[in-house]
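Q: Convert this sequence to structure tokens.
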Amino acid sequence: MATASSPASLYNRIGGYDTIAAVVEEYLDKLMADPRWRVSRRHEAPTRGSAHGSCQIAYLSEKAGGPSFYLGKDMKTAHVGVSISARDWELARGPLNDALAKCRAPEKESREFAGLFEALRSRIVER
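A:
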């Protein structure tokens, strides 16, 4: 619980698990519907309800200050060989912003949530 000296976590301010799960599912749907992304991916694409989606939900819930615990691999190890390029990363930003808007995440929290993704860029994008 937040006090006067500790503001509510992003997890709580954005709407908790339900909102984060909805954003991730919507994001994956939008990302996989983009033919530019699908053409560049040679690995199994994440889908709604997939283990990949569940891992993203747990990871982002934990990073947003929620009660979830991400037990998966570190991001660098998890993405070795996936060959995500800088172009792929940029393509993924639009679907994330669209998903946040569709799920009616407030603007400030949307920026913070997108920042959780952006913080992963150096560990996921292969040069």
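Residues 83 and 101 are 28 Å apart (CA to CA).
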